[in-house]
Amino acid sequence: MFANIPSQYLVVGSTIMAIFMGTLLMFARMRSQKKPVNAKKILIPPIAMSSGALMFIFEEFRITPIQILEAVFIGIIFSTVLIATSKFEIRNNDIFMKRSKAFFFILIGLLIIRVILKVFLSESFSIGELAGMFWTLAFAMIWPWRVAMFIQYKKLEKSLIIK
What we know:
It is elongated, with a radius of gyration of 18 Å. The protein has a two-stranded antiparallel ribbon. 71% of the residues lie in helices and 5% in strands. It is mainly alpha-helical. A hairpin with a 2-residue loop joins strand 1 and strand 2.
């Protein structure tokens, strides 16, 4: 699939795309903090992202079990940082994400770490393997984070009902 394109172009192109998408995500995240949260808004992103697993149908994206474990481990570590900075608050009888100055810098930091890892690892892995590893990392990061957010949201939602 990528045989005719030199690997350094693929790494540069996919890195630029990752930076663009990451930046877009950060601004969308900041904007969404101005609107109330609901269960759908919390759970739809990881469910929608799961369709990306279809990439593993193609052999060039498949990764070894040890690569899966490494990506999942790093994803879970990254998710703990996001979980720690994602809090909710009640405003006007609605639940909102609490604004955190650290959250923006954490997202930038995670994006920078991801880009550095990608550039460093591109010498050892094919571009397809890297894509598979980074999708797995992102998936392992978003699920625990969103589940933790959902649990927090449900606790706050119960307190709204009780009042």
